[in-house]
Amino acid sequence: MPASPRPSPEDRPGSPGDRPNPAGAPGYAFPARLWQALERHRPPGARAATEGWRSPLRGPWLTAVYGAALLVTLPLVIITGLLDYLAYGPQFGQAFPRDVGWLRLPPFDWPTRPSWLFRLTQGLHVTLGIMLIPVVLAKLWSVIPKLFDWPPARSVAQVLERLSLLLLVGGILFQIATGLLNIQYAYLFGFDFYTAHYFGAWVFTAALVAHVTLKLPRMVSALRSRPLAAELRTPRAGTRPEPPDPDGLVAPRPGPPTVSRRGAVALVGGGALLLGALTVGQTLDGPLRRTALLLPRGRDSGAGPNGFPVNRTAAAAGVQASETGPGWRLTVRGDGRTVTLDRDGLLALAQHTARLPIACVEGWSTRQSWTGVRLRDLAALVGVTDPSAAHVRSLERAGLFNQATLQANQVLDRDSLLALRVNGADLSADHGYPARIIVPALPGVHCTKWVASIEFRTRRDG
């Protein structure tokens, strides 16, 4: 089937500056001459590069399908990412980056219920972000001929649109690349991941809002141009190019199809589901952990009560066996009082057991049975019955997370513990022996291991 000729720039509607202004409006002459000069001086090979993309699948409809999928899912990735930032307690200066200027989120006390809240938000953020990689790449493939348009823009409005696209495409590729490296513990950035990921998310979000504002009407009309059900029933033999479009997405000289549009959609959707299946087990834990081939710490964490993943071992943290042996003491402070307890003294106090998840920023989580002393009972030992916060310090002397501040609701929750045992056995050295913090819905890095001291603060302390 012969393809209709691609409209020239002069024939495309809705592109200010493409055609001469008969009224000779002030300020128009110079931009018009600029676009015309650029049109006359094409770089070598520019036309060949543009016309070399010959897939008959490309067009507004397929681009709109991939765009609609991203429009539905990307906001969920953005929202869960911002919620995870709030879970770190930025009001205590312990979320990274600390100084975000006017991008600071409203103050918010992260809840302890449901206990799996952080497990859900971080698991969704990582798993969905990975699943969207094929969709993002397919969307870029569908519009890639536009990258070779010459001139790159034919009006000031198009220049601004191209700049927003640069931020949009560059932003999402940056977020994906750094996010993947982070969850695999491949710190190859040369800069702080947390800072770059946070500010990068805001740049991408702003570009996404601008792009959606500009393109939503065209996306809707493109989706309406071809019934989805009919398109998904069309085999390869019946696949035809779309009519030429104002944006030039349709190939000017399309070749024969090698796959149908339903095949292209199925390939991308299947790739997304496959990545999800290889990832989600690290969040759901249990038997599905064996399917989590993308799990950063591996699927086999050993056997026994302490056989579950860790991010940072005792050796990596520089915690020596001599520091956690019989001479270890926990210092508890509050309201002008100080109490020092050894591990036997802690075991002599009332013990509480809770089955709680522990979830990490890399997306993995696990649910275990923890036993220890309630934090609110330790607060009561030093006369603090209504704590405003608790500051926990670790034996680990270096690192971003060798201390943490807990909110009042996190200290007072019935299941918030200074854990001494897990699954009926003593904590292993890598899991924080002789004592570690466990709080419902708290990010794993703030469930401080190898605890050395806890200071319970009151509202009088400010």
Q: What would you note in describing this structure?
A:
Strand 5 and strand 6 (403-407) form a beta hairpin. The protein has helices at residues 29-40, 46-51, 60-87, 117-131, 133-143, 156-183, 193-225, 228-233, 261-277, 281-284, 314-317, 343-348, 375-381, 408-412; strands spanning 330-334, 337-341, 352-359, 365-374, 389-394, 403-407, 417-422, 425-426, 436-438, 451-457. The chain has 2 domains: 9-277, no CATH class; 314-461, Oxidoreductase, molybdopterin-binding domain (Sulfite Oxidase, Chain A, domain 2, Alpha-Beta Complex). The chain has a 5-stranded mixed beta sheet. Strands 3, 4, 7, 8 and 9 form a 5-stranded antiparallel beta sheet that branches. The protein has 14 helices and 10 strands. 34% of the residues are buried. The protein starts with 28 loop residues before the first helix and ends in a 5-residue tail after the last strand. The longest helix has 33 residues, at 193-225. With 462 residues, the protein is an alpha+beta fold.
SSE layout:
Blueprint (H helix, E strand, L loop, with lengths): L28 H12 L5 H6 L8 H28 L29 H15 L1 H11 L12 H28 L9 H33 L2 H6 L27 H17 L3 H4 L29 H4 L12 E5 L2 E5 L1 H6 L3 E8 L5 E10 H7 L7 E6 L8 E5 H5 L4 E6 L2 E2 L9 E3 L12 E7 L5
Parallel strand pairs: 1-10
Antiparallel strand pairs: 1-2, 3-4, 4-7, 5-6, 5-10, 7-8, 7-9
Helix pairs in contact: 3-4, 3-5, 3-7, 4-9, 5-9, 6-7
Instruction: Please report which band the strand proportion falls in: under 5%, 5-15%, 15-25%, 25-35%, 35-45% or over 45%.
Output: 5-15%
Mean pLDDT: 87
Q: Compute the gyration radius: what is it?
A: 29 Å
Apparent shape: elongated
Main sheet strand line-up: 2-1-10-5-6
Q: List the helices and strands in order.
A: HHHHHHHHHHHEEHEEHEEHEEEE
Oligomer: single chain
Number of extended strands: 10
